[in-house]
Specification:
- The structure holds 2 protein chains of 2 kinds.
- By secondary structure, chain A is mostly helical.
- Chain A has one domain.
- In chain A, 72% of the residues lie in helices and 5% in strands.
- The two termini of chain A are 37 Å apart.
- The longest helix of chain B has 53 residues.
- Classes of the chains: A mainly alpha, B mainly alpha.
- At the A-B interface, α1, α2, β1, α3 and α4 of A face β2, α7, α8, α27 and α28 of B.
Chain lengths: 523, 696
């Protein structure tokens, strides 16, 4: 039952089935919609946890629970899925965050109301996210990767921020949600186009050895000899643009602050916690194994852009006055550490990248929940007006302080491992890469951790500390409610658990990563 | 959520790797193998107090004091049994593996860590006792004890660490809890700023700690101290190659936590926290961490061919710190600030000793200083509690009103000044003696290690520093306890729960030095010397009489001059004014403009123009390209469409159609009716799945 692909397909498609079921529920019956959505998302989550329990960790480098069925015969594209130690943590992360998003939504609906449509979008999104992490065929991967796009576009475009924004230089005034959603959509589509070109190029070249052409990732990895020279360079470049937009890497990141700021709370959470990982995951899953030589050629570029992103984003954070936008920019910096880890092409670096993804998922997810709940109560995200929050809402303030500490990479909490180990890996990158360059990147990255501490501590000072502004006199603020608690406590527990006991992630990833690095880079 | 089930999850909890390294060290039995409780108990207790503290009869203080009582008892028992029979034990639990690097938690029980356990436990216990009286009626009483327990716990995690990773964890726990404690009264902007300053300056040091830990650990392929020091012992070539940079970086980390010049700026501001916090922070906990780290990896700094040449850097930093910060204490009017700058100065002594190759002397001063500095801070707190002011100008004449505070404060001051036979005398004398030795021919220090000439310069600074120390402590005592009371109200002695800890600390401030009298006792040397990887430093067999006489003369001279100038009615205001050397005093009051430079030269520009410029670039340069491309594409599309339609329907119709269609989509989005879209979306996905089933 578990072994033949049905269970894994269940994890991926149960939310989609849920979305279909929701269609049939009358719009007025919101309670039933919520229960159904939660039911399907939970079923998917429970199933993914079950797979994690049954997963053979002794054989973490192998794809498990998978299946390989013929799909589009004409182009030899198959429904090939499976999880290994690298994708397993991310798969569970995606189903986990989906459940929490629905729990949080229970009594927090953004305007315009319409829970039915909103829940359907979450569920479709969940299928796209989970599917991307299990797909082992490039076309299948592409489909899931793109399925993610539309629900998020609608979430931002419909439930997003209705404030007006003035585009600098062009002096155009438009609604934030419209600008952000279109920017997000086009930016990502722009990247996807290059990515698809890369996939197609790989497909056509894969037949040069006399075998049938294929989109199969494992098959393509085995035929790595065919992808060399300038061909490989351009393919890598195409994939790079596609993935780097998603991560996002500097300078392709500008859709992110707008999308995050404009998106409804749950949208921001899903975007930050899971969606950004599609890009970094794709680097590890696709670019590195299939084009290892090019990966080595590109590694310095990736490393430099990653570290520029760390510093650039931290500085940009310091200039923000809007709390949500600050958190959004901080994502760019954190993903910089993830990409730095990837760029070292070492087992430690890639392990660091994956735990960094998981940690960023739970930490920044929680930060966006908090930012959403606070702006819901104060009707503003301007940090200058939020001072003294700790007095008005002590529990909210305490959770915010805790999460900010996690975000600045405090050891003992989840965020530490990804940052520290990425820096550690940079000291000795893969043989052949410039140690001088990567050690410089290590030092600059370490300086970035100070800047991160700076913007987070100053954010806390502005938002939490001091006396509340007189404009809140007479207001009663409801501190954290039970649905928020229900969504946040699991995240807090995860942050501590991964921080104290990183085996939760490394136990799954380490063997798979070591195997990847050894087979692909021979190191 | 996942890897939990990775092989060996359950096992490591049971399988503890235990090692007793050197043959002459005993394993310590249950006492050592259960010592993991030392860091774990306070960490758990901190959560218990934070979450449930208010339900306890004494609002969480009861839990905290029980924990510290446990620590004090455990530390003392360990210390006594270590003195009887030296222990060398290391327990580790592998909690994960990254690449081939094991990540471990564990606990070390050897001379160095036992010394730290005992002072953190004993001094901590007394400070917690005192805090009950001092914090009475505080708005966040329970929360205070939760953070305070976390603070002590973080320090114990750090001290117990058998590897660099765990040390970093403890290091940062101390950092974050100090941030909580310094900013305890966060309603005031100034306090939360002081807390941030402490955290950020420490973070700057952490760049060094992180990089140093990375360099050293990667070079030996392990985070364990014992593996690093094995590498030093066996002359591992990779480690030798990187040891210099590793040593420099680790020391920069130590400079942050131990507040060495020029990363000292956070410590005086840390006074914003409640006084018990200052007492613990300046004595046994936090600022000792850097010196402890240097001590922990000391063979790395001692062995030729490794990081021995970093010692010249260490000794210079120590000398600058001890001298420059001591001078600032001369001009402080806030009693806690005087003490804060004296802490910096004393930390400079410890660092200078470490730089001079005197491991025992540096740690011995750390040990005695923990008692008399805690005593002085608690005494200052007692005074502040009585007069409701930190300013020396609001005090005076308190000798009669606060007899216990007065007596113990004088003991602490004399100990700090280094008057025979109090604790500070012996430890400071040992530092002076070791500097003299370092400056002699027989020490054989190479120029790279600092050399004899440098050591002699530092010796002169250290003696001058001793003079300055005695002078400002005399000033503090005279202004506080003698003459007329200049404040408001009627001050009276603090409650028993506060002065009893003072008396106990006073006792230790007298006797703590007696355990290491050259030629007579060597208990302390034996304690910290009995550890993994013995540290072969120079330890005098008898007094260095010249150093002793010079040190004592400096101390007595300082007190005498202090008496002449600051004892009430001894000097006229005009005489005091001539003493304030023009040029020097403004410089000292401005703290050498270092804080101003950091603020106006670094922090403000980064937060202001630099960050603003980056943000501007984001909006006006990168997004200019993005938005420009988007708008251009829209325009182009419209133009093409218009051209296309012109021949058929005419431009006007076409334009209308474009706006109409565009408006329609927007209208639908605005009205929120997107079921159709969702339906298409799901339909499309379902079709794909169906396709796969049909085609397969």
């Amino acid at each position: 039952m578990l072994e033949n692909g049905w269970a894994l397909s269940g994890v991926v498609f149960l939310p989609l089935v849920g979305a279909g079921v929701l269609l049939a529920i009358p719009k007025a019956n919101e309670q039933l919609q919520k229960v159904a959505a939660l039911g399907f998302a939970s079923a998917s989550f429970v199933l993914s946890v079950l797979l994690a329990v049954v997963f053979d960790y002794g054989n973490a480098a192998a794809y498990q629970f998978g299946t390989d069925l013929e799909w589009i015969g004409a182009i030899n594209s198959n429904f090939h899925i499976g999880v290994d130690g690298i994708s397993l943590p991310l798969l569970v992360l995606s189903t986990f965050i989906t459940v929490l998003s629905i729990v949080y939504s229970w009594e927090h609906w953004p305007d315009p109301h319409n829970p039915k449509a909103f829940l359907m979008l979450i569920l479709v999104l969940a299928t796209g996210l989970a599917g991307t992490f299990v797909a082992l065929d490039l076309i299948l991967f592409f489909v899931f990767f793109e399925v993610v796009l539309l629900p998020m576009y609608f979430m931002i475009g419909i439930w997003g921020d209705r404030n007006e924004v003035n585009l600098p230089v062009f002096n155009r005034v438009t609604e934030m949600r419209l600008y952000a959603s279109i920017k997000f959509f086009l930016f990502t589509l722009f990247g996807s186009a290059f990515m698809l070109l890369g996939f197609l190029a790989l497909y056509f070249r894969s037949g040069d050895g006399g075998e049938e052409r294929t989109f199969d990732m494992i098959e393509l990895t085995a035929r790595g000899d065919l992808f060399t020279g300038s061909f490989a360079f351009w393919v890598f470049a195409g994939l790079f643009i596609g993935f780097a937009v998603k991560v996002p890497m500097f300078p392709l990141h500008t859709w992110l602050p707008d999308a995050h700021t404009a998106a409804p709370t749950v949208g921001s959470v899903l975007l930050a916690a899971v969606m950004l990982k599609l890009g970094t995951y794709a680097f590890v899953r696709i670019s590195l194994p299939i084009l290892p030589e090019e990966a080595q050629n590109w590694a310095p570029v990736i490393g430099i852009l990653a570290v520029v992103g760390i510093i650039y984003a931290s500085l940009a954070c310091l200039a923000q006055t809007d709390m949500k936008r600050l958190i959004a920019f901080s994502s760019v910096g954190h993903m910089g550490f993830v990409m730095l880890g990837v760029a070292t092409l070492t087992d430690i670096g890639i392990n660091a990248a994956i735990i960094g993804m998981v940690a960023h998922g739970v930490i920044t997810g929680l930060l966006f929940f908090l930012a959403g709940s606070m702006s819901h109560r104060y009707h503003t995200r301007e940090m200058a007006r939020l001072g003294g929050n700790q007095k008005l809402m002590p529990i909210m303030g305490a959770i915010l302080a805790f999460t900010a500490m996690a975000s600045l990479g405090l050891p003992g909490l989840a965020g530490f491992w990804g940052e520290f180990m990425a820096l550690l890996a940079s000291f000795n990158p893969l043989e052949g890469l410039s140690t001088g360059l990567f050690r410089t990147l290590m030092v600059i990255g370490a300086i970035g951790t100070v800047l991160a501490a700076g913007y987070l501590l100053w954010m806390l000072q502005k938002v939490n500390f001091g006396e509340p502004s007189t404009e809140w006199d007479g207001h009663h603020f409801h501190d954290v409610d039970r649905w928020e608690m229900a969504a946040w406590v699991p995240l807090i527990v995860s942050i501590v658990a991964v921080g104290v006991f990183p085996r939760i992630v490394f136990g799954a990833t380490n063997d798979a990563v070591i195997n990847l690095v050894q087979t692909v880079f021979g190191g | 959520m996942i890897g939990l089930l990775a092989p060996g999850l359950v096992a490591p909890v049971l399988v503890v790797a235990e090692e007793a390294h050197a043959a002459e060290l005993s394993s310590g039995g249950l006492l050592a193998s259960a010592a993991w409780l030392i860091p774990v108990v306070p960490l758990v207790a901190a959560w218990v107090i934070a979450l449930f503290g208010k339900r306890f009869p004494l609002k969480g203080w009861d839990v905290a004091i029980a924990v510290m009582g446990f620590e004090a008892a455990y530390g003392t028992v360990l210390l006594l049994s270590h003195i009887a029979n030296p222990i060398g034990y290391e327990g580790t639990v592998e909690i994960a593996r990254i690449g081939s690097l094991p990540i471990e938690w564990g606990w070390t029980v050897d001379g160095l860590s036992i010394m730290m356990y005992s002072i953190v436990g004993v001094v901590g216990f007394l400070v917690f006792l005192y805090a009950r009286g001092y914090m009475e009626g505080d708005i966040r009483y329970t929360w205070f004890f939760a953070s305070f327990t976390l603070f002590a716990g973080g320090m114990l995690v750090l001290v117990s660490a058998p590897n660099l990773l765990q040390l970093i964890v403890g290091w940062e726990l101390v950092g974050v809890s100090s941030w909580l404690l310094i900013g305890h009264y966060w309603e005031e902007h100034e306090n939360s700023s002081a807390a941030i300053k402490a955290f950020l300056v420490n973070r700057v040091g952490d760049i060094g700690l992180f990089i140093g830990a990375i360099i050293v650990s990667v070079s030996v392929g392990s985070f364990r101290f014992s593996d690093v020091l094995d590498g030093v012992e066996s002359g591992a070539p990779t480690l030798a190659r990187y040891a210099f940079w590793g040593g420099v970086a680790l020391f920069i980390g130590a400079m942050g936590k131990s507040a060495q010049f020029p990363l000292h700026v956070w410590l005086p501001d840390a006074m914003a926290g409640p006084t018990p916090v200052s007492a613990l922070m300046h004595a046994a906990t936090m600022v000792t961490a850097g010196v402890y780290l240097v001590g922990r990896v000391y063979p790395l700094y001692l062995t030729e061919g490794f990081a021995d040449d970093v010692r010249s850097f260490i000794i210079v930093v120590g000398a600058l710190t001890l001298f420059l910060t001591g001078l600032i204490a001369l001009v402080q009017n806030d009693i806690k600030k005087v003490l804060a700058y004296s802490t910096l100065s004393q930390l400079g002594y410890m660092t200078a000793a470490m730089g001079a190759g005197a491991y025992t002397a540096g740690l011995f001063h750390l040990f005695t200083h923990a008692f008399f500095k805690a005593l002085l801070f608690l005494g200052a707190g007692s005074v502040i509690h009585a007069v409701h002011s930190n300013n020396l100008s609001d005090m005076g004449g308190l000798r009669k009103d606060m007899p216990w505070t007065f007596r113990t404060f004088v003991v602490g001051s004399l100990a700090l000044a280094g008057i025979l036979p109090l604790a500070g005398f012996f430890s400071k004398d040992e530092i002076l003696a070791s500097l003299r030795f370092a400056g002699s021919e027989e020490s054989g220090f190479t120029a790279a290690q600092g050399g004899a000439g440098l050591a002699n310069v530092v010796l002169v600074l250290a003696i001058a520093g001793a003079f300055v120390t005695a002078f400002y402590m005399a000033r503090t005592v005279f202004l506080t306890f003698y003459g007329q009371y200049k404040g408001h109200g009627h001050p009276h002695e603090s409650p028993k729960v506060m002065w009893v800890p003072l008396a106990v600390l006073g006792f230790f401030s007298i006797v703590a030095g007696w355990i290491n009298i050259p030629g007579i006792t060597s208990t302390f040397t034996d304690v910290v010397g009995a550890r993994f990887h013995l540290v072969a430093d120079h330890h005098a067999e008898s007094f260095d009489y010249l150093a002793m006489v010079l040190g004592l003369a400096a101390a007595v001279g300082g007190i005498a001059l202090g008496y002449r100038i600051w004892f009430p009615d001894r000097a006229t205001q005009a005489e005091r004014d001539t003493f304030t050397i023009p040029g020097l005093y403004p410089l000292l009051s401005a703290k050498y403009h270092i804080d101003t430079f950091y603020m106006d030269g670094i922090i403000r520009p980064i937060r202001g123009p630099v960050a603003g410029a980056v943000n501007w670039v984001n909006g006006h340069v990168i997004d200019f390209v993005v938005n420009g491309a988007g708008l251009a594409a829209m325009g182009l599309g419209r133009g093409v469409y218009v051209l296309d339609q012109e021949g058929v329907d005419g431009a006007i119709n076409a334009a209308g159609a474009v706006t109409g269609a565009g408006g329609g989509v927007l209208r639908r989005m605005q009205s929120g009716r997107i079921e159709q879209y969702a339906t298409w979306l799901i339909g499309g996905t379902v079709a794909l799945v169906a396709g796969f089933i049909i085609f397969s």
